[in-house]
Amino acid sequence: MARQRRFVISLAVAGASVTLAMLFIRLWKPLGGRIEGARLARVRASPHWRDGSFRNQIPTSKLSNGGIWRSLVLQFSGHQVRTPRAPIPIHRLSARDLGPVAAPGLRAVWIGHSTVLVDIDGFRVLTDPIWSERCSPFESVGPKRFHPPPIDLADVGRVDAVVISHDHYDHLDMKTIQALAPRGVVFFVPLGIGAHLERWGVPLAQIRELDWGNRARLRELEIIALPARHYSGRGPIPHDETEWASWAIIGNTHRVYFSGDTGFFPGLRDIGESFGPFDLTLIKIGAYGETWPQIHIDPEEAVQTEIAVRGKLMLPIHWGTFNLAYHDWFEPPERLMTAGTNRIAFVIPRPGEMVDVAKPRAVERWWKESIEPFTAF
């Protein structure tokens, strides 16, 4: 009888633990919202949804070359310099520095990681905005910024649109979304991500939820969801229940391409043929690794991506702000310099440095200021 009693108690404790865990996941806001109702029906109707999850255009593995075990070894070994040894030189901006949005015109400010403030033909657009100190569901645990944002979010002032590539924590930041929503910003997101935004208090009227190939307008600005090669999920196990995307942002005079997170895939050439050439491209160059080669492009593939989408000027993103990979933090721009020089036009601005697409500045290796003196190039 005692053994049976212990067994019953153990089952009860296990059941209660599972119930509490499920309740925690359901109620904890940073994890986002549940896809249900009309949104779920639209998700399931997508041609890119199959057998309970979104799929890439071509077969894709999240992990390879040793998978999770190799990733763990790389995480806790190696001699790479994964964080700056000195403060990153940022260019501090104020609301006055930004000034009014030019129309027509095209300029951009790299805030850090994949966050770029783009002024395009009279509209101000933010890509994957994250002003939080960490890209994590926790306030005191997770990858911490190498540098502060070069401008306070309050000083950014008017923002017409926010474009979100996918729902990973380094691209979709709850606190930043909640700070922007009361300004009446319109959020352009891939399918399913509207559930997260609604959970965080964004009115449905401010959400434009698009599948690949869908177009939406914000007065004279057209924003188009395009394919990317990646995955999604905010829980410990990614289920790909929300879509990921790259984006075309098209004004009356200029065109911008935002890669979001992606691996290289043939569909990039289709994007270039259908929507290029692009006056400015925001293409990731960092956080690549040998265990996830299919879902993250490296700097050499970033050059190929720029050529494929018919970009005129690349502003590299997704590097230099968080420690998310197993390479030297300064390696991506160095490899881009080697691979891209004499093949593509690119700028590598300091965080906060204004890029005028009509008059781009020559590249300076400013990141050398934050590297130990003995580091060789």
What would you note in describing this structure?
The structure is a single chain. The chain has 377 residues and is of the alpha/beta class. The protein has helices at residues 2-27, 37-45, 67-75, 95-98, 153-156, 174-180, 194-199, 267-275, 299-308, 331-340; strands at 49-50, 53-54, 106-112, 115-120, 123-127, 161-163, 186-190, 207-210, 215-218, 221-226, 246-250, 255-258, 280-284, 314-317, 354-356. A seven-stranded mixed β-sheet has the order 8-7-6-5-4-3-15, with no helix packed on it. Helix 9 crosses helix 10. Mean pLDDT is 91; it is low at 6-26 and 373-377.
- In terms of per-residue confidence, which ranges show pLDDT below 50 for 5 or more consecutive residues? 6-26, 373-377
C-alpha geometry: globular
Residue share in β-strands: 15-25%
Strand arrangement, major sheet = 8-7-6-5-4-3-15
State the helicity in percent bands: 10-25%
Q: Counting H and I runs of at least 4 residues, what is the number of helices?
A: 10
Number of strands: 15
Straight-line distance between termini: 72 Å
Structural class: alpha/beta
Largest pleated sheet: 7 strands, mixed
How big is the Rg? Answer: 21 Å
Instruction: Round the mean pLDDT to the nearest integer and report it.
Output: 91
Task: Give the H and E element order.
Answer: HHEEHHEEEHEHEHEEEEEHEHEHE
What's this model, at a glance?
This protein is 25% helix and 17% strand. It is of the alpha/beta class. The model is unreliable at 6-26 and 373-377 (pLDDT under 50).
Sequence-ordered SSE layout with sheet pairings:
Blueprint: H1 2-27, H2 37-45, E1 49-50, E2 53-54, H3 67-75, H4 95-98, E3 106-112, E4 115-120, E5 123-127, H5 153-156, E6 161-163, H6 174-180, E7 186-190, H7 194-199, E8 207-210, E9 215-218, E10 221-226, E11 246-250, E12 255-258, H8 267-275, E13 280-284, H9 299-308, E14 314-317, H10 331-340, E15 354-356
Parallel strand pairs: 5-6, 6-7, 7-8, 12-13, 13-14
Antiparallel strand pairs: 1-2, 3-4, 3-15, 4-5, 9-10, 10-11, 11-12
Helix pairs in contact: 9-10
